[in-house]
Amino acid sequence: MLSLLVRRRRLLHHLLLPLFRPFPMAPSQPRTKSRNPLLIPGIGKFSRSKMYHKRGIWAIKAKHGGAFPRHDPKPASPEPASKKPPKFYPADDVKTPVPNRRKPKPAKLRASITPGTVLILLAGRFMGKRVVFLKQLSSGLLLITGPFTVNGVPLRRVNQSYVVATSTKIDISGVNVDKFDDKYFKKEKKERYKKSESSFFEAEQETKKLPKERKEDQKVVDTPLIKAIEAVENMRGYLGTKFTLRSGVKPHELVF
Amino acid sequence: MPFKRYVEIGRVALVNYGKEYGRLVVIVDVIDQNRALVDAPDMVRGQINFKRLSLTDIKIDIPRVPKKKTLIQAMEAADVKNKWENSSWGRKLIVQKRRAALNDFDRFKVMVAKIKRGRAIRQELVKLKRENAA
Questions:
Q1: CA pair distance A217, B32, nearest whole angstrom
Q2: Considering only alpha carbons, which residue of chain A is nearest residue B109?
Q3: Which of B65, B53, B62, B54 shows the shortest CA–CA distance to B29?
Q4: Are B110 and B118 in contact (CB under 8 A)?
Q5: What is the pTM of this model?
Q6: How far apart are CA B93 and CA B100, in angstroms?
Q7: Do residue B108 and residue A237 have CB atoms under 8 angstroms apart?
Q8: With the CA atoms of A85, A91, A92 and A96 taken in that order, what torsion angle do they form, in degrees rounded to the nearest 10?
Q9: Please, are residues B80 and B12 in contact by the beta-carbon 8 Å criterion?
């Protein structure tokens, strides 16, 4: 429907623009949004012919002398010499499942858990202990510490779901936890031993030794923490004591 | 054996069931055998079943269905708030509320205080026993 003049002007503009850019222009990037807005899922606003024009196929063709540029077909790779017919043909046509594109996000931190909160551990080796929350790691797990000299809980990762957050907070402004991430806590892979009796018994006797680095990191994190703890009366005893339920105490009625 | 707290106009009662649970109200009128009209300074006047009320010892002097202003003046004159808070029933409720609002840390501090108190009492007792035995 457009006049020939309009078409020709647009073509010239499109061809001459790379030669003469009147002002600094944005670098050409691949277009991400579709030129055909959806009215309803499955129905676009513009017809095929309109889209042909919008995409500028006519301009690309004109640029390349009347035909849309295409690569020559690749020479067919020679078929592998021994290609046996398959032993098994499935009786029914089974649909392939749609690939899962879901990317799990790190767990959302509860509003009641902020750096310095005292948490109560509900499961695991340190069940019942009251610990200090330091930060949330990129995997979603919480980084906590006893402190170690107060209640024996080292720098450790714990899942949010196995924790009760109390409303008691400790000042952790003096603590630097930047160096800790999930990689720091990753277990070392045990070398797979060959399946022989002697090596099996040898492997069992190796005991795990805590690297010196871990002990030093623990001290570095704990010293400012302990200073903040000593500033509050009864706090050291509180963190050293385990959480217990007594007869008649109803957890759903407790205010933490 | 005879009743001491009567349902009468001006009787202060405690709501023991329902939306207004725990509120102190004044009976301002009796509607029928089961229901009363109650009012409180910070509440819209409304009906309530007698079964939902626990009568207290406090009574104030008001006409039947007084205006809100009159009610508040009468309550001030009778000093209902202080009488209630100093009564053993009122004090018990206040303590219950405080205990329910205790933090985990607060509960720990209470436990420590109780242990200290118990220890002091036992030490005194032992001292007295020793003195008595001697």
A1: 76
A2: A234
A3: B65
A4: no
A5: 0.68
A6: 11
A7: yes
A8: -40
A9: yes
Q: What angle do CA B91, B92, B98 make, to 5 degrees?
A: 90
To the nearest whole number, what is the mean pLDDT of chain B?
95
pLDDT above 50: residue A14: yes
**A147: its two tokens:** 């402190």
A237 touches chain B (CB under 8 A): yes
Q: Which residues 110-129 in chain A show a CB within 8 A of chain B?
A: 118, 120
SS3 sequence of chain A: CCCHHHHHHHHHHHHHCCCCCCCCCCCCCCCCCCCCCEEECCEECCCHHHHHHHCCHHHHHHHCCCCCCCCCCCCCCCCCCCCCCCCCCCCCCCCCCCCCCCCCCCCCCCCCCCCCEEEEECCCCCCCEEEEEEEECCCCCEEEECCHHHHCCCCEEECHHHEEEEEEECCCCCCCCCCCCHHHHCCCCCCCCCCCHHHHHHHHHCCCCCCHHHHHHHHHHHHHHHHHHHCCCCHHHHHHCECCCCCCCCHHHCCC
Quick one: average pLDDT of A178-186?
88
Best of B108, B114, B115, B116 to disrupt the A interface (most A CBs within 10 Å) is B108
- Contacts B114 to A, Cβ<8 Å: none
Nearest CA in chain B to A166: B104
Q: pLDDT tens digit string along A103-139?
A: 888 889 999 999 999 999 999 999 999 999 999 998 8
Span A43-86, pLDDT tens digits = 999 999 999 999 999 999 999 888 888 888 888 777 776 778 88
Residues of A in contact with B110 (CB under 8 A): none
CA distance B101 to chain A (A): 6
Instruction: Using an 8 Å CB-CB cutoff, list chain A residues near B101.
Output: 255
ipTM of this model?
Answer: 0.78
Torsions phi, psi for B13 (to 5 deg): -135, 160
